[in-house]
Amino acid sequence: MDLSLKSIQEGTVLVVDKPLEWSSFDVVNKIRNTIRNTHRIKKIKVGHAGTLDPMATGVLVVCTGKKTKEIHFIQDGRKEYLATLKLGATTPSYDTETEEDQTFPIEHITREKIEKTLHGFKGEIDQYPPIFSAIRKDGKRLYEFARKGEEVEIEPRKVTIDTISVEEWEGERLVLRVQCGKGTYIRSLAHDIGKALGSGAYLTALQRTAVGDYSIDEAWQMQDLVDAIRSSGEPPIEL
User: Fold this and answer.
1) At what angle do helices 222-231 and 24-39 cross, to 10 degrees?
2) Is the CB of residue 225 less than 8 Å from the CB of residue 14?
3) Residue 65 in contact with residue 87, Cβ under 8 Å?
4) Secondary structure (3-state) at 74
5) pLDDT tens digits for 158-213?
6) 47-75, pLDDT tens digit by residue?
7) Distance between CA atoms of 151 and 107, rounded to whole angstroms?
8) How far apart are CA 217 and CA 210, in angstroms?
9) Which of 38, 91, 124, 232 is most buried, with most CB under 10 Å away?
10) What are φ and ψ of residue 82, in 5° steps?
11) DSSP structural state of residue 144
């Protein structure tokens, strides 16, 4: 890939495998600063198409230069995820950000029951976003209410699940492959599936494997991308 300054300014699309515990902004900020320092420029447009939670990994599409105008088209693309659930327990955040608050039996759960339950989540469904999310309500982020222990009414949203299937299942560990539309919260999906199974569930790992036509197979590892950008710059002047 051409990572020269001219190419970056004209616009590039970078598919990044977002590291665990990095925010989407962390990735954008790292790329922007690396470009600025390498090519000795003050400003460069860099943005991402579709936010990933810090506890998620996988495809984050980053655009530079004139390609940032295409971000809204890219983030409207279908998403694919590999979601790992723990059955038999719940957390307030629907993932590992908070501690388990309830436990439930799982002995009654069978493969047939899982398959039948998943079928009920295909198509357009009503989904309640997690209280620990960045959605705004009355001028505040929902997670601000959650962290203060304040109750707030959350409105359901229409989301579309194209396909959902079992990749692995053993005891309390369930791995699902999900293809879905924009705005779907996989954390909420995990929580709702646990409830529909007559138990509980929360997300323990999440990898986004595709955004539209962009796949994890073509994704840069962060350090490799940083090294590639740095190597594309002008060599230092020797005094």
Assistant:
1) 20
2) yes
3) no
4) helix
5) 999 999 999 999 999 999 999 999 889 999 999 999 999 999 999 999 999 999 99
6) 999 888 888 999 999 999 999 999 999 99
7) 33
8) 9
9) 91
10) -110, 115
11) H
Cβ–Cβ < 8 Å for 153, 145: no
115-136 burial, b at 16+ Cβ within 10 Å, e below that, comes to eebbeebeeebebebbbbbebe
34: amino acid identity, one letter: T
The residues with which 125 forms a beta bridge, in sequence order, are: 159
**Token pair in block for residue 36:** 């600025």
Whole-model pTM? Answer: 0.88
The yes-or-no answer on residue 53 being catalytic is yes
125 contacts: CB under 8 Å, gap ≥ 6:
158, 159, 160, 161
Neighbour tally for 201: CB within 10 Å: 27
Catalytic residue among 17, 53, 95, 192: 53
Give the span between the Cα atoms of 114 and 141, in whole angstroms.
33
- Rg of the chain on CA atoms, in Å: 20
The greatest distance separating any two alpha carbons of the chain, rounded to the nearest whole angstrom, comes to 74
